[in-house]
Amino acid sequence: MHALANPARFLRIARPATSWLLLVGLALAIAGMIAGLTLTPPDYLQGETVRILYIHVPSAWLGMAGWIGIAGASISQLVWRHPLAAIAGRALAPAGATFAAICLITGSIWGRPTWGTWWEWDGRLTSMLVLFFLYLGYIALASAERERGGEGRIAALYGLVGAINLPIIHYSVLWWRTLHQGESIGLTGSTIDNSILWPLPLTMIGFTCLFGAATLMRMRAELAEAKVEARMRRMAK
Amino acid sequence: MNPWPFVIGAYAVAIALTAALLWRSLASMRRAEAAADAFKSK
Predict the structure, then answer these.
(1) In whole angstroms, what is the distance from residue A149 CA to residue A86 CA?
(2) What does the CA dihedral B8, B13, B16, B21 come to, rounded to 10 degrees?
(3) Which of A22, A102, A224 comes nearest B14 by C-beta?
(4) 3-class SS of residue A173
């Protein structure tokens, strides 16, 4: 990670990586969604609505992964003062907020035919909504700090404190009796039948690549803006 | 209850929000890099 501390070195890797992530992400996400809509059987209990799984699960993962990235960038900034850490945190936040919103909306749409309600204030749904609001707070705080010429240390502290919500989201289905189902996909296996499960890795990897592409594009934009600002300051002297 | 309006609605939301995220990120990157290149050539 420290090898990428030089923005020029980072850009040499980020430029080709952006295009590749975008192309691979689009191909896998589209293939996974088409397969999920047309090639898998309906679930014996949920029927056709189980197809929402292929977009809801990747968006839930990316909503949380975005904040894991922000927490990592925050540590990197506060401990090692990595020059790209604040930029990475600011670039991760809009992508994380978008996927947290997709997770909440698709979950709500899935809940109506499955549970008979659009929304329930249970542990999993509420902690995910809190994550979405944390993202909005981070975006506002980081951009305000940047406009005032700060190094982004306050946003980094906020990013670390907000990470407390991640285990709450993960364990909410175990800690509280919730409407949301328990963990059906773990590191050791899945309770979902393979005939339904197989397109999920396609959309998981596909949307993760698209998340990576969006983050790299925002980092590149911030680096280009910083370059212009630095030159203008030099010219003003 | 017909499940398909819910399935199609969920996919439409996911596709629209992902496309908006990518479009805004791409536009801001292109604008910022074009401005940096123009400034450099001056």
Answers:
(1) 12
(2) -150
(3) A102
(4) helix
State how far residue A224 is from chain B, nearest Cα, in angstroms. Answer: 5
Nearest Cα neighbor of A46 from A101, A120, A116 is: A116
Residues of A in contact with B24 (CB under 8 A): 94
C-alpha span between B21 and A211 (Å, rounded): 9
Q: Tell me the CB-side half-sphere exposure of residue A31, using CA atoms within 13 A.
A: 13
- B12 in reach of chain A (CB within 8 A): no
Domain-wise residue ranges, chain A: 24-35+50-181+199-236
d(CA A74, CA B15): 30
The C-alpha angle A127, A154, A134, rounded to 5 degrees, equals 15
Q: Residue A205, Cβ neighbours under 10 Å: how many?
A: 16
DSSP-based three-state secondary structure for A43:
strand
Per residue in A51-95, pLDDT tens?
Answer: 999 999 999 999 999 999 999 999 999 999 888 999 999 999 999
Q: Model confidence over A187-213: pLDDT tens digits?
A: 777 788 889 999 999 999 999 999 999
CB A77 within 8 A of CB A153: yes
Residue with tokens 């908006």: B20
Contacts of B9 in chain A (CB under 8 A): 109
